[in-house]
Amino acid sequence: MDEQLMLAWRAGKTMSLFVDEFRCPIPAAATARAVWELVNAGVTGLYHVAGAEKLSRWQIGELLTAGHPEWRRLITPETLKNYEGAPRAPDTSLNCSKAQARLSFRLPRFSETCAQ
Fewer CB near the terminus (10 Å): N or C of the chain? Predict the structure, then answer.
């Protein structure tokens, strides 16, 4: 979404972000590290790997724009109820406790990674 905000900022466009659509964002580096550790541990079965924090798209946008005040005006809160496009999953959060128990590090919270 960071890239989408940057593109919108450059084009002078706004983005509507849903307050009732939830995700568990995670940096690519943390995903790669988790997958690497699980593969090296030889685990089998289904393991969910995602960020340790369930956030709405709007909350994600607020966190991303906190470091870019010029982008803040480009996001507006919206509800999924008003969305007229193809069906969207309102909640794609995952229970990562099985993977977390096998990892040597804590899966990150997006709010912590945005603050860095």
Answer: C
